[in-house]
Task: structure prediction
Amino acid sequence: MKFNRLVSIVVFFFLVVSGLYALTSLQYLLPNIAAETIMPLSKAKTTIWAQNEDSEKELRSGSISSSWDQENKYWTVNTVDELSTSSLRVSAQGELINFSVATKDQRQIKRNKYDHLTIQKSSARQYVFSKSLQQKKEQPSIHNLTEKEVLFAVLPYQVQRLLKAKVKDGVNLDLVITNNLSVNFDLAFMAVDPNKPLPGKYDFPKAFLDSLKQHSSLNVIETGATGIAGLIYPHKFYLAFGPAPDYLPLASWGGEPGKDFFQVSEL
Result:
């Protein structure tokens, strides 16, 4: 999964059709998923279709790799493409230990007002956010994570744990985008045949579709902001995972039509 794309895109995020799913707050599901562990992609080629600073759709190639530190009991997940790099350290239960991302993408920099971000766990549920722009550092700030909150950098892995626990109904959680912004989201789970139309009314790149058709089935999460945030940005985003038992994170897409993005990992 391309974590640095989430850094910029997830500020907006998604609206799920209301009334179709029985939503369960994340904190009530924590006992059910306590035994579930994550499984990052060990090594994969990534491709991203997204707008550049001239508002033209461009293709960027990259890679993702991961390794398990047996002594310290955490995964290191590294991603790189032509404009950005990120590194994530995450526990077997999907708890963020450290995350850093650096980008040269001018659209992201203009939108986010930083070109480098780090998130460091400092205590049980406390995280320090540090940002910089052209090597000028902002004052670090602290966020105390509640049981209902998930940090954006580990969202795919927490969703993976939900899939492993056979959660089928909708889930409600608070997604922490930055240290001072937590947005409420609904998540809807669906089984998708990759040989049939994917959810979302988008002009999907053919290579993106062809890559997903290599899998026998997909588990897709459709997610969207609730309340005022959902009214301001009523567009959906999607995360796609492979079949059981690993539910590997394979792709993401969505956003406002015309300003959408598509990302896929090829094993």
The helical segments are 3-9, 26-33, 106-112, 155-164, 206-212, 227-232. Confidence is low (pLDDT under 50) at residues 1-22. The chain is about 15% helix and 45% strand.
